[in-house]
Amino acid sequence: MISTVKELLFSVTTHTLNGRVRGGLIMLLFPLCLEAQTWNEDFQNQPFNLRYGSQSPTRIADNRVRDFAVGHVGHAWNEGSYHAIGTSPDSRELAAYIGGLRHIGRVDLQGHLRYRHVSDDRQAWQTALWNFTDNPLAICDSIPGEATTETFDMNATAAYSFNERLRGALQIGISTGSRADQNDPRPRTRTSLIPINAGIDYDLSDAWTLGATVGVQPFSSNVDYTNVQQSASNFYFIMKGMGDYQKRTTADYTSYHRDYKGMTYRGALSAQWKPSDGRWSDFLEVGFATANEDARDGSTAYEYKGGDYDQTVLSLHDRLQWQASERSLHNITIQASLTNGKGTWYDQKRETDTEHGNIQYYRVLGSSTIQKTSLLNAALAYQWDLLREGQRDLYAGATIGYKNIIRKHFLGGAIPKQNIAVASIDLKAGKHFAIRQTTLLAQLEGGYSLPLTDDYADGSPYSGSDNISADYTRRIFEYETGANARVAALVDASRPVGRNLTVGLHANFATRLYLGNEEYWQGFDGHSYTTTEIGAYLKF
Hints:
- By secondary structure, this protein is mainly beta.
- The protein has helices spanning 2-18, 42-45, 469-481, and strands at residues 68-80, 90-104, 107-123, 139-140, 145-161, 166-172, 174-181, 186-193, 196-203, 208-226, 235-241, 244-249, 256-273, 280-298, 303-323, 328-353, 359-388, 391-409, 417-435, 438-455, 484-498, 501-514, 528-539.
- It is 6% helix and 63% strand.
- The strands form two sheets. The protein has a 20-stranded antiparallel sheet that branches. A three-stranded antiparallel sheet has the order 4-11-12, with no helix packed on it.
- The chain is globular and about 80 Å long.
């Protein structure tokens, strides 16, 4: 019966997607909100699968757990004043998930369906959904509102072993999301992503494996602003970066429309050394990606270029594993990425076509680079697992991180520059307890971030009442550079109720506390941001 249900799950996943994308398989798009939840199969596979962090979908063929299915529902609360400027200080989330793994002969399958509903209270300065976070060319408003976001994503991955040496895999994903705010000016955002990823691995010998991955990801998003109360005058901010902007008023534009179109191309090469009779092994992957997001405003009546954003990413991932004994497993991971982004702005003039019914349009006078961004992320992580009967019993880990952000804004002869460097450390430990037929997992996490460099500059050429530095740019900078501490705890209890059926409950708590000195923006002192989640799951 259980086997039949698993096969039905993957049949439904693939059949449903074929109605949307012909021949489709789905890619996993979103990480789970908190790590080490036993209802997610990566808790069993991540420590043992050397290639678990790989970009290649062929990694699922190396999973230790290859037949797994789960259904999950969860509810989360997010509260607090110490948050990013576009985040709500009070939000509620409901999520439902079903997915799993299946191994059939030479084929390994992975798939999921997920739905999320988020209600945000007092949210402002954020209308984008899944845009690149470092894209400065945003459209937003400063009016806090009651926003509702709904997202749906599907996933299926298929890996096939052609022979003992050659393996291939394919992922195709689809994710759709919608966000709406019921306060004037009222933004409505709709976004879709369709990532496609293909990989291949070849065993040169018993120890060495080489791999390659290629992928694309089309991106589409549109934002519609509407106004119900015509007598009120509000503003849309057409951002250029670092506080520099153009302003639109609801008096001039009772509605406003923006389209984002983008494409990502990526590739990666990997090498794995894993002797069949050795305790040491290593996996190395080097990746490259190039992407663009172009913004176009207006409608059939006129078009206004909201700016083009281009991005390149170089990434490195290396994982060294040492099987010290049958009970002890050690993993050391190095990850680094360098992201360079460039925003192009178009100087435009509003004109009237008197020969064709006084149609308003924008004439492009020229284009230039408005902002360049460089983002370096690096992390060194160590994880130790103590095993009992081949399963994780006690585990602990530490991660040391470093982040450097450099932004240069171009304002004629002046080039304001922001330079941010932050170091962080995170610690984690967990233990399983057997209480009769119930398995209890308890996990604690803690972390601290410290700014090393915080050179501030404002790219806004405005002054007086038009200067939003105090409310926007400085707040973003203080959030990025402020020292903070983090604490998290997780409790998970599961119990078998049949031969192949397990039910479970979990509760998660995480809080981030501001410890900075409010050098650039006042409002975070003594404040925190807390996430609480409860959930139930069924594994079969």
